[in-house]
């Protein structure tokens, strides 16, 4: 039973990022929120910001329980996987800039997805396969980053920071008006492309209306496995094997060897400082800094500044 449910989950994990990630930026219509102000926000002991109030609350509660900023960041990201499912998924990618105030050092963590070794031009019949579908999915970095940030900079264990997320995954969260509108408008085709995504998030065949209760207990089971066995379960253990099996059965390109090629240490020095009068540092992407979007953004800003 566990293998069957895990296999169902894997396709959801790998599909959800491709299917609805573009919606994350518009999950909340902040411009219409009357509680926000253009004035600076100050706090004595720290603050948390995310694109969902529940995730923000989880991060704040983590600080109040004695965790540090790094614990709260991971807790917030994990909560987003439950209540804003296009964001921060364990099978996604991310780039981090972390300031270690104790040692006065800036760290850049590259958790971007990497192309599998078999992703050569001849494997794609046209550009559409590069943009959607199982072949388009890269080897994930997020979960590795969560584990590394907690281990190097945090004070809490994965089992501790994930605990609030388990509640929302198992008991559910309520779909907002903005989420419902965005998914219906922009991700209707995703339910056809990714049946397991539809099974979890839209069992009726259509995205839910505002107020719909959405649960994802299978992802909760995955997190419980990681809490018990460690992040290696996701990259070298049972979860990795089931993800690879699913991808290969659906004409994808992943192999277990691809997971073994991920760097053991994602921590990199930040690069591209822009002076006069401000300094800008970017998170470097391993082995692809010339093509990385972060590097291009930094270089673009430098060109603009030099042209002034």
What does this structure look like?
With 308 residues, the chain is mainly α. The protein has 15 helices and five strands. It has helices spanning 2-20, 53-64, 69-83, 128-131, 142-153, 158-161, 163-171, 177-186, 190-193, 195-201, 217-229, 232-235, 238-249, 256-260, 293-307, and strands spanning 94-100, 105-111, 173-174, 213-214, 267-269. Strands 1-2-5 form a three-stranded antiparallel beta sheet, covered by helices on one side. Helix 1 packs across helix 13 (238-249). The N and C termini lie far apart (63 Å).
Quick structural overview:
The protein is 47% helix and 7% strand. It contains 15 helices and five strands.
Task: Please describe the topology of this protein.
Blueprint: H1 2-20, H2 53-64, H3 69-83, E1 94-100, E2 105-111, H4 128-131, H5 142-153, H6 158-161, H7 163-171, E3 173-174, H8 177-186, H9 190-193, H10 195-201, E4 213-214, H11 217-229, H12 232-235, H13 238-249, H14 256-260, E5 267-269, H15 293-307
Antiparallel strand pairs: 1-2, 2-5, 3-4
Top keywords for this entry?
15 helices, 308 residues, 3-stranded antiparallel sheet, mainly alpha, two-stranded antiparallel sheet, 47% helix, disordered N terminus
